[in-house]
Amino acid sequence: LAVIGVGCRPQEAAPPAESEPPRDTPTPVEVMATPTPPEMAPTATPEPVTFDIQEIKTPHYVEASVAHGVILETSPTELSITFNFTLAPPTQLRVVKEGEPIVTSNAISEDRLVLSANVPNQGSGIYIVYYEACWPDGSCHQGQFGFVVA
Predict the structure, then answer these.
(1) Which has the closest alpha carbon to 98: 64, 149, 133, 143?
(2) Greatest extent of the chain over all pairs of C-alpha atoms, in Å
(3) Which of 24, 31, 51, 81 is such that its CA lies 20 to 30 A from the CA of 117?
(4) pTM above 0.85, yes or no
(5) What is the 3-state secondary structure (H, E, C) of 4-25?
(6) Is 96 helix (H, G, I), strand (E, B) or coil?
(7) Rounded distance, CA 29 to CA 106, Å?
């Protein structure tokens, strides 16, 4: 407990405020008011692609060189589908762009595990790959996948 007048010193007055030197950097308010330079402005977002193609994998399907649902910048020059079981005729694949057939192939690799096709450049659009994988016992299964070239 302090007794008034005992042990208390009067507060000293704060020194007068010095004027602030000019700033080299803008204040946050000034930064927010500055327009974004064109080279830093965000680019327009491309229109979303409507992609309603179901992927159907056959038995023994391992992978395709172009993944289902992917959006590519350029058209692939070759498509291949790998299987883990020996392929036999009449195995084939068809590439279709927006309903128009582009290429049909029955090219099977020497080890008989890969079905492939050279694909001519058809530009942007929605592509569907339909394939029929057939086995040495004569049974066949159909599959499909799709991709987009922007």
Answers:
(1) 149
(2) 111
(3) 51
(4) no
(5) CCCCCCCCCCCCCCCCCCCCCC
(6) strand
(7) 66
**CA–CA separation, 66 vs 117, rounded Å?**
12
Query: pLDDT tens-digit profile of 42-89?
Result: 555 545 556 688 999 999 999 999 999 999 999 999 999 999 999 999
The span from the CA of 136 to the CA of 70, in Å, is 32
Q: What is the CA radius of gyration of the chain?
A: 34
Query: How far apart, in Å, are the Cα atoms of 143 and each of 5, 26, 60, 95?
Result: 97, 62, 11, 12
Task: Look at the block and give the residue holding tokens 């498509």.
Answer: 79
What tokens were used for 125?
């659009």
CA-CA-CA-CA torsion sign (140, 99, 49, 118): positive
- Check: CB of residue 149 under 8 Å from CB of residue 75: yes
What's the angle, vertex CA 49, arms to CA 44 and CA 52, rounded to 5? 165
The amino acid present at 97, given as its one-letter code, is: K
